[in-house]
Automatic annotation (TrEMBL):
Domain Cadherin-like beta-sandwich-like, residue spans: 191-270
Signal peptide coordinates: 1-22
InterPro entries named in the record: Cadherin-like_domain, Cell_wall/Cho-bd_repeat
Cell wall-binding repeats: 346-365, 366-385, 386-405, 406-425
Record's keyword terms, sorted: Repeat, Signal
Entry keyword Transcription: no
Name of the protein this chain belongs to: Cadherin-like beta-sandwich-like domain-containing protein
Organism: Clostridium butyricum
Length: 446
């Protein structure tokens, strides 16, 4: 008789013997329930229990990394390693903390991969080498279905990765494995003591911080990076704005190469204790530092801080380097800034990627109507200067090619229009210099 068939029959007999006294959900098909790895400190959306069973019916041990020799328990960590020597595959059993929260198992890291309930997955065959399974948690079954319909199942609460190795990995083989890492993590508020091999962090921010800008740069530019399930790349400076609820918020950053995936987890407590870093530009506690011919005025340090240099402003990021040639959103002031090639915050007019923007003396990007040198301009919601026709609050305006608001007469494509002194387009009948003119509802002179 086939060995696997004998295992299944034996397991079935055990299940039959105990089914009269044990609830049905204690068992997965073909395996016997063992002591699951549990996490008593799990928050909503985190796994509170996880069991991985070999095809032989025995529970597999979880390890924190490939080189570990001591079994690990389920914790807030999201990466676990399994040595599957002597088994044809695995079955999973997992529970998530929180009413109506669900966990799904994925056989692929693709965004459009199909998820399975752990109890419905059955035996997953594992070939020689390395295989990864992904467990993702969602607030509800509907949330999973919405993510599936949107083609991005990575829009979840947490992602757990099971790194399953069919054969033992010796130290020489492990040295050949190239794991992907981040070179830095930057937060627009709060700070972390980043090292590439540390994958879990906690940071506290003030309660009024409703949004956090996260920048996660990979060590290798060819690696793929995602922040909370959304891809970020070099063109966008590996950045994503993350909205924060009051209390704990989990930010997951994954970096992936051809063979492996590393997951970094940041738990942000909005309304927690004061963060070590500050975004304040208050200079009452500042220190003046002379470095060569440059004078820097900074507050509490050189990371995540505004710096005054030669009468201009710079911003030092989480790595201690000034932002250059890039946009930056300051959560504390809810304002956008642009830093030039030398790292200075832009002021006045600036043309960026073919569009014109205006920044006040402190560097804040302006929006809406502004008056400059006696002329009015309109800057849209993204801050870009508007030209041509524009409707605002039900009224039509015309902005010249230089962005200045038009008043008086305008000939546009052979039609005449008239604009009031406030720039609004005239309709109906109006007396101009003693002459009566009529304008249609679209502003064209009749």
């Amino acid at each position: 008789m086939n060995k696997n068939v004998r295992h299944l029959i034996a397991a079935a007999l055990v299940i039959s013997a105990f089914s009269a006294v044990a609830p049905a959900n204690i068992f997965n098909l073909g395996v016997i329930e063992a002591n699951a790895s549990t996490y008593s400190g799990a928050s909503n959306g985190q796994l509170k229990s996880l069991s991985v069973y070999r095809s032989t019916g025995k529970e597999a041990q979880l390890y924190s990394n490939l080189a570990a020799t001591k079994e690990t328990e389920l914790t807030s960590s999201t990466d676990y390693y399994i040595d599957l020597k002597g088994s044809d595959g695995v079955e999973l059993d997992a529970e998530v903390e929180g009413d109506d929260y669900v966990v799904k198992v994925f056989k692929s890291s693709d965004k459009d991969a199909e998820g399975y309930d752990p109890s419905d997955l059955g035996l997953v065959p594992i070939d020689s080498g390395s295989t990864k399974l992904y467990l993702r948690t969602y607030r509800s079954e509907d949330d999973y279905k919405d993510a599936w319909d949107d083609g991005n199942v990575k829009k979840c609460l947490k992602t757990y990765t099971l790194h399953i190795s069919k054969d033992n990995v010796n130290s020489d083989e492990e040295d050949d494995v190239e794991y992907p890492y981040l070179s830095s993590i930057y937060l627009s508020d709060g700070s972390i003591n980043f090292t590439k091999s540390k994958t879990s962090y906690k940071v506290n921010v003030d309660e009024d911080v409703k949004q956090l800008l996260v920048r996660a740069k990979p060590q290798d530019d060819d690696d793929l990076v995602e922040i909370n399930g959304d891809s970020v790349d070099e063109d966008g400076d590996y950045e994503k704005k993350v909205s924060l609820d009051k209390g704990e918020n989990t930010i997951e950053i994954t970096v992936e190469n051809d063979d492996e995936t590393t997951t970094y987890t940041i738990v942000v407590n909005r309304g927690g204790k004061s963060s070590d870093s500050s975004n304040s530009s208050d200079e009452k506690d500042s220190t003046n530092i002379i470095t060569g011919s440059d004078s820097f005025l900074y507050n509490s340090g050189t990371m995540n801080s505004w710096v005054s240099k030669n009468g201009k402003y710079m911003y030092m990021d989480g790595t201690g380097q000034p932002l250059k040639n890039k946009w930056w959103f300051d959560v504390s002031s809810a304002s956008d800034y642009y830093f030039d090639k030398d790292g200075y915050a832009q002021t006045g007019w600036a043309q960026i990627n073919g569009k014109w923007y205006y920044f006040d003396n402190s560097g804040k990007m302006q929006k809406g109507w502004i008056s400059n040198d006696g002329k009015w301009y309109y800057l849209n919601v993204s801050g870009a200067m508007v030209t041509g026709w524009y409707q605002d609050a039900g009224k039509w305006y015309y902005l010249n090619s230089d962005g200045s608001m038009k008043t008086g007469w305008l000939n546009d494509n052979g039609s005449w229009y008239l604009f009031n002194s406030d720039g609004s387009m005239v309709t109906g009948s109006v007396l101009v210099d003693g002459v009566q003119y009529s304008f249609a509802s679209n502003g064209v002179m009749i």
